[in-house]
């Protein structure tokens, strides 16, 4: 369960990027976070994960973030990640092991096998010794998902994972996310492509600084709620 109460995030004393947002998600699901550019979608995730200063209450299974952070995985936008860092694909995926490892403990043979298994799931095992900078955008996104797999987190947050990737990578990632949902994971995804919302998400949050609507996709993704969320941008085709 994820409970968010009265979450507000402001930058440098300006108008809140996210203001007084409250919602609850009670069971494993794929949840899309929708809204126009500048709506605070990414900021909402960062506020929930204590990556930015915020006001309000956030509980994961009725526990604060500090008590459960090892059970949380976060994949930020690819544009915010330095893919020139000299690290191999296999080493990048192995970073998902560290939240649950003791200090200075080496990765075991069994854990390396887990890394390889995760890479195989995303069809990237043959690239395990490549530098991450050699990968395409879609390949790199698959590697980041593999890192999430080895972490075995209960709560997964993805910020625009499908931007700038190929259709094959998107299909591979969505298939894995559905599997993870079915295994009991809660997955929140900042998403912008409205044409795929019905197919991708069990529930959606629609926001523009404030929460505008939240609920099952079939009931919530309506023309009325789209108009409230996107306003004039909906008719101008600038979503």
UniProtKB/TrEMBL annotation:
Nucleotide-binding keyword on record: yes
Record has Transport as a keyword: yes
Top-level taxon of the source organism: Bacteria
Signal peptide region: none
Domain ABC transporter residue range list: 2-234
InterPro entries referenced in this protein's UniProt entry, alphabetically: AAA+_ATPase, ABC_transporter-like_ATP-bd, ABC_transporter-like_CS, Metal_Ion_Import_ABC, P-loop_NTPase
Annotated PROSITE patterns: ABC_TRANSPORTER_1 (PS00211), ABC_TRANSPORTER_2 (PS50893)
Keywords: ATP-binding, Nucleotide-binding, Transport
SUPFAM superfamilies per the UniProt record, alphabetical: P-loop containing nucleoside triphosphate hydrolases
CDD domains, alphabetized: ABC_Metallic_Cations
Sample GO molecular function, one term: ATP binding
Alphabetical list of Pfam families matching this protein: ABC_tran
Family the UniProt entry places it in: Belongs to the ABC transporter superfamily.
Name of protein: Metal ABC transporter ATP-binding protein
Protein species of origin: Kurthia gibsonii
Lineage: Bacteria, Bacillati, Bacillota, Bacilli, Bacillales
């Amino acid at each position: 369960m994820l409970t968010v109460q009265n979450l507000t995030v402001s930058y440098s004393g300006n108008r809140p990027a996210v203001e007084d947002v409250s919602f609850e998600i009670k069971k494993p699901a794929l949840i899309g976070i929708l809204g126009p550019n500048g709506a605070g979608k990414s900021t909402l995730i960062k506020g929930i994960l204590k990556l930015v200063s915020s006001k309000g209450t956030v509980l994961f299974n009725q526990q604060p973030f500090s008590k459960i952070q090892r059970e949380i995985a976060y994949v930020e936008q690819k544009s915010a990640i330095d893919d020139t860092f000299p690290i191999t694909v296999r080493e990048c995926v192995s970073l998902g092991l560290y939240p649950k490892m003791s200090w200075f403990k080496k990765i075991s043979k069994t854990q390396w096998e887990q890394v390889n298994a995760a890479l195989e799931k995303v069809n990237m095992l043959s690239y395990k010794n490549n530098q991450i900078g050699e990968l395409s955008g879609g390949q790199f996104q698959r590697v980041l998902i593999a890192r999430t797999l080895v972490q075995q987190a209960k709560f997964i947050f993805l910020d625009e994972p499908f931007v700038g990737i190929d259709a094959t990578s998107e299909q591979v990632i969505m298939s894995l996310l559905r599997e993870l949902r079915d295994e009991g994971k809660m997955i929140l995804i900042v998403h912008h492509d409205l044409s795929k919302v019905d197919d991708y998400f069990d529930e959606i949050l629609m926001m523009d600084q404030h929460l505008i609507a939240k609920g099952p996709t079939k009931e919530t993704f309506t023309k009325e709620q789209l108009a409230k969320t996107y306003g004039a941008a909906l008719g101008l085709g600038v979503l």
